[in-house]
Amino acid sequence: MISIIVAIASNNAIGKDNQLLWHLPGDLKRFKELTTGHCIIMGKNTWYSLPRRPLKDRVNIVLTDLPGECIDDCTCAYSIEDALSKCKEGKDIFIIGGASVYQQFIGIADRMYVTYIDKEFEADTFFPNIDLATWEIVHREPPLTDENNDFSFEYLTYQRKI
Question: What is residue 68's DSSP assignment?
């Protein structure tokens, strides 16, 4: 099972200057609960944006386009196929960013866990459009608010249509 996990704004924004655009402790907790014990695949910019590396209790795989590049505290992969081959059998695979990695995996992912932020943000990094001819919402939680933010958000789970 290959799952994309992402938080996106209403204008598909996901980041600016290699940083998240919002701070939602509940969403970070959900991310940890979903991904712990599994394999996570990310690009180098996402890796370097993490406040603590590697993410504990997960197989951390970093995609790089520099052949032979080694990055401390993670497993490097040099293609989508290489990254998938380095995932441990029996573990789910989560794609955690950034934009180019999402773009590469959206065509082969089975599921998407999306935190939808009901606000537009100024950004330099965006998530690809979700094609509803390909994806269907199979779970939607009621909108939530956070006392430290001026927007609502909701958790959506998409499944690839067969």
Answer: T
Which CATH number characterizes residue 7's domain?
3.40.430.10
> What is the tens place of the pLDDT at every residue in 15-68?
999 999 999 999 999 999 999 999 999 999 999 999 999 999 999 999 999 998
pTM of this structure: 0.96
Q: List b or e across 83-100, with b for residues whose CB sees 16 or more CB atoms inside 10 angstroms.
A: bbeebeeeebbbbbbbbe
H or E stretch covering 97:
none
Residue 97's φ and ψ, nearest 5 degrees, are 120, 175
Q: How far is CA 45 from the centre of its chain?
A: 13
Q: Using only C-alpha atoms, what is the Rg of the chain?
A: 15
Contact 2, 109 (CB under 8 A): yes
Number of domains the chain contains: 1
Return the beta strands (E) in the chain as ranges: 2-9, 13-15, 39-43, 59-63, 75-77, 93-95, 111-117, 125-126, 135-140, 144-145, 152-160
What is the extent of the structural domain holding 106? 2-160
